[in-house]
Amino acid sequence: MPLHLHPDVVTTETDDGTVLLQLHTGRYWQLNTTGTSVLRRLLDGCAPDDIAAELARRHEIPPEQAEQDVQAILARLSSAGLVVGS
Protein backbone atom coordinates (compact mmCIF):
# COMPACT_ATOMS: atom_id res chain seq x y z
CA MET A 1 0.00 0.00 0.00
CA PRO A 2 1.45 3.40 -0.93
CA LEU A 3 2.20 6.03 1.67
CA HIS A 4 -0.35 8.81 2.14
CA LEU A 5 -1.32 11.41 4.71
CA HIS A 6 -3.68 10.25 7.42
CA PRO A 7 -7.20 11.50 6.57
CA ASP A 8 -7.16 13.51 9.83
CA VAL A 9 -4.09 15.54 8.78
CA VAL A 10 -4.12 18.81 6.89
CA THR A 11 -1.06 20.63 5.61
CA THR A 12 -0.09 24.17 4.84
CA GLU A 13 3.05 25.12 2.97
CA THR A 14 5.10 28.01 4.32
CA ASP A 15 8.22 29.82 3.16
CA ASP A 16 10.23 27.57 5.46
CA GLY A 17 8.59 24.21 4.70
CA THR A 18 5.28 22.67 5.71
CA VAL A 19 3.07 22.68 8.78
CA LEU A 20 0.97 19.58 9.42
CA LEU A 21 -2.07 19.72 11.72
CA GLN A 22 -3.53 16.59 13.25
CA LEU A 23 -7.19 17.57 13.51
CA HIS A 24 -8.29 15.14 16.23
CA THR A 25 -5.51 16.19 18.61
CA GLY A 26 -4.94 19.78 17.50
CA ARG A 27 -1.23 19.03 17.45
CA TYR A 28 1.01 20.81 14.94
CA TRP A 29 4.15 19.49 13.30
CA GLN A 30 6.61 21.50 11.23
CA LEU A 31 8.91 20.27 8.48
CA ASN A 32 11.73 22.34 7.06
CA THR A 33 12.20 22.58 3.30
CA THR A 34 14.22 19.36 3.14
CA GLY A 35 11.66 17.50 5.25
CA THR A 36 8.93 18.85 2.99
CA SER A 37 10.78 17.59 -0.07
CA VAL A 38 11.17 14.15 1.51
CA LEU A 39 7.49 14.01 2.44
CA ARG A 40 6.38 15.02 -1.07
CA ARG A 41 8.58 12.38 -2.65
CA LEU A 42 7.32 9.71 -0.25
CA LEU A 43 3.71 10.66 -1.01
CA ASP A 44 4.53 10.49 -4.73
CA GLY A 45 5.52 6.86 -4.24
CA CYS A 46 9.30 7.26 -4.39
CA ALA A 47 11.36 4.71 -2.49
CA PRO A 48 13.21 6.01 0.59
CA ASP A 49 16.53 4.75 -0.85
CA ASP A 50 16.00 6.78 -4.03
CA ILE A 51 15.12 9.88 -2.02
CA ALA A 52 18.24 9.41 0.11
CA ALA A 53 20.45 9.05 -2.96
CA GLU A 54 19.02 12.27 -4.38
CA LEU A 55 19.58 14.11 -1.09
CA ALA A 56 23.15 12.84 -0.84
CA ARG A 57 23.93 14.15 -4.33
CA ARG A 58 22.12 17.47 -3.88
CA HIS A 59 23.57 18.29 -0.46
CA GLU A 60 26.92 16.55 -0.89
CA ILE A 61 26.53 14.43 2.22
CA PRO A 62 27.48 10.79 2.75
CA PRO A 63 24.81 8.41 1.38
CA GLU A 64 24.60 6.65 4.75
CA GLN A 65 23.73 9.93 6.47
CA ALA A 66 21.06 10.71 3.88
CA GLU A 67 19.56 7.23 4.33
CA GLN A 68 19.45 7.67 8.11
CA ASP A 69 17.85 11.10 7.74
CA VAL A 70 15.13 9.87 5.37
CA GLN A 71 14.39 6.88 7.59
CA ALA A 72 14.21 9.16 10.64
CA ILE A 73 11.71 11.47 8.93
CA LEU A 74 9.62 8.50 7.81
CA ALA A 75 9.70 6.95 11.29
CA ARG A 76 8.67 10.19 12.99
CA LEU A 77 5.84 10.83 10.54
CA SER A 78 4.60 7.25 10.97
CA SER A 79 4.89 7.13 14.76
CA ALA A 80 3.03 10.44 15.05
CA GLY A 81 0.22 9.01 12.93
CA LEU A 82 0.67 11.66 10.25
CA VAL A 83 1.14 9.17 7.42
CA VAL A 84 -0.18 5.69 6.78
CA GLY A 85 0.83 2.96 4.37
CA SER A 86 4.10 1.24 3.64
Explain this structure to me?
- The chain has helices at residues 33-43, 48-59, 63-79; strands at residues 4-5, 9-14, 17-22, 27-32, 83-84.
- Strands 2-3-4 form a 3-stranded antiparallel beta sheet. It has a two-stranded antiparallel ribbon with strand order 1-5.
- The model has no long low-confidence stretch (mean pLDDT 95).
- Strand 3 (17-22) and strand 4 form a beta hairpin.
- The protein is of the alpha+beta class.
- It contains 3 helices and 5 strands.
- Helix 2 packs across helix 3.
Characterize the biggest β-sheet. Answer: 3 strands, antiparallel
- Helix tally equals 3
Tell me, briefly, the overall form.
globular
Give the ordered list of helices and strands.
Answer: EEEEHHHE
The whole-angstrom Rg is 13 Å
Query: In percent, how much strand structure appears in the residues?
Result: 25-35%
Cα-to-Cα separation, first versus last residue: 6 Å
Uncertain regions spanning at least 5 consecutive residues: none
- Average pLDDT confidence is 95
Structure class? alpha+beta
In order across it, which strands form the biggest sheet?
Answer: 2-3-4
Q: In terms of quaternary structure, what is this?
A: single chain
Roughly what percent helix?
Answer: 40-55%
Total strand count, please? 5
List the main descriptive attributes of the protein structure presented here.
two-stranded antiparallel ribbon; 5 strands; 86 residues; alpha+beta
